[in-house]
């Protein structure tokens, strides 16, 4: 099975977490943490900065790795490095997603997450959000 390496930004602002609804593809309308594929020669941190700039038109500060999620979709294996992040500069503009929300811990289960992303939710609801 082909492995796809991606990064995801768990963007925090005070006690809220940023989530986006996919605007395209097989999983259109399902919720995820923004991010994307790691390109050849990039570190995961470089990839997430680039992807968030492309998708949300903001600069982020990348914090600690939360976890690496390994998930088998029907056609590929996903390896997703999930990092705590904050917006360092700019105002979020959705360039690819169809919708977005800032969710409190109590609201995290109120949206229809992609299967791999729901795995990281289970980890972040049980921890104190770090300062980045």
Description of the structure:
A hairpin with a 4-residue loop joins strand 5 (about 60-70) and strand 6 (about 75-90). The protein has helices at about 45-55, 115-125; strands at about 5-15, 15-20, 30, 35, 60-70, 75-90, 100-105. The chain has a single domain (about 5-125), classed as Nucleoside Triphosphate Pyrophosphohydrolase, CATH 3.90.79. The protein is built from 2 helices and 7 strands. It has about 130 residues and is of the alpha+beta class. The model has no long low-confidence stretch (mean pLDDT about 95). Strands 1, 2, 3, 4, 5, 6 and 7 form a 7-stranded mixed beta sheet that branches. The chain is about 15% helix and about 40% strand. The termini are far apart.
Topology:
Layout: E1 3-13, E2 16-21, E3 31-32, E4 35-37, H1 44-56, E5 59-72, E6 77-89, E7 99-103, H2 115-124
Parallel strand pairs: 1-6
Antiparallel strand pairs: 1-2, 1-4, 2-3, 2-7, 5-6
In short:
This protein has helices spanning 44-56, 115-124, and strands spanning 3-13, 16-21, 31-32, 35-37, 59-72, 77-89, 99-103.
Structural descriptors:
alpha+beta, Nucleoside Triphosphate Pyrophosphohydrolase, 7-stranded mixed β-sheet, globular
CATH structural fold name: Nucleoside Triphosphate Pyrophosphohydrolase
Q: What percent of residues adopt helix (DSSP H or I)?
A: 10-25%
* Mean pLDDT value: 94
Q: In CATH's first tier, which class applies?
A: Alpha Beta
Backbone shape: globular
Tell me the CATH architecture.
Alpha-Beta Complex
What's the structural domain tally?
1
Question: Tally of extended strands?
Answer: 7
